Request: fold
Amino acid sequence: MAKNLTTVVSSKIQTVEINRGNPTVIIGERINPTGRKLMLKALQAGDFDIVRSDAVKQVEAGAKILDVNAGVPGADEPALLKQVLTTVMDVVDVPLCIDTADPEALEAALSMYEGKALINSVNGEERSLGAVMPLVKEYGAAVIGLCMDDDGIPATPDDRLKVAGNIIERAGKMGIPVEDIVIDPLALTMGSDHTSGLIAMQAIEKIIAEFGVNITMGASNISFGMPDRKFINSTFIAMAIHAGLTCPITNPLEPEVSIAVKAADLSMGRDEYGMIWIQAYRARQKEQEEN
Ligand code: THG
Reply:
């Protein structure tokens, strides 16, 4: 049996334990202006109403962690990211995943975040490791390690495993515990390479067999450019959960995805007496009766 490590993240008042024995932890993806014109415009105008409502709606829909990305072209990202985080922390209590490629914005965010954050992300490039790992250590955070490095995104599952190993090794040398590393094998779109999903799942299996770490993935990337994306997303996420995905970054407001995650958890023996499944069914019924 592969090791089964537990990654702990927290807000000021909530703790989330990510582990292959627990129900899947959905990291809500919606607070991100990339590809979302309305949110981009609102953030540019200093209007945080969409951020507030997306935060509340995602948590109501079952997100246990929220990803927060404030990457607005031309904006002062450290300042904007802090404002968005403050806005989110004001309306929900869940732990947050700080999504930025800018080390300055990351440090600004960590310095005001209350709890143990999940950093999104570091990768195997020397420049990224050098900038991000010291912050992981200093703030006692957990971090997502992307399976790419100075040579790009490896084509094969074995080469992605190698990059994961390099990131884990570097963390170990710095005294960062391996359970604080969550690996993202990278789900690329099947619209441009129909084997992307298979490669990601094979990478997951190899990475958990070797290291037992928790696994995340931007699980809706897979369907970009395809019609009827919700069916691809929900099927893929269930299959990836079987392969070992424990904390997908996805949209919990998509009913097909949320339902597929719960069915997968039940199928994996992680929903005792099916209580989560039954409760979610009753909530859907009640909502239908009210409408
Ligand atoms: N791995 C890690 N982090 C990530 C990703 C990843 N962060 C960003 C991204 N990928 C995951 N997050 C999002 C956020 C929003 C959307 C998609 C992925 C999104 N997409 C709509 C769509 O799918 O077309 C845009 C339109 C809309 O709904 O408004 O919103 O892979 N570690």
In short: The chain has a mean pLDDT of 97. The CA atoms of residues 44 and 72 lie 7 Å apart. The pocket of (6S)-5,6,7,8-tetrahydrofolate is lined by residues 29, 32, 35-36, 99, 120-121, 144, 184, 216, 218, 220-221, 249 (CB under 6 Å). The beta strands are 7-10, 15-18, 27-31, 65-68, 96-99, 118-123, 142-146, 181-184, 214-215, 249-250.
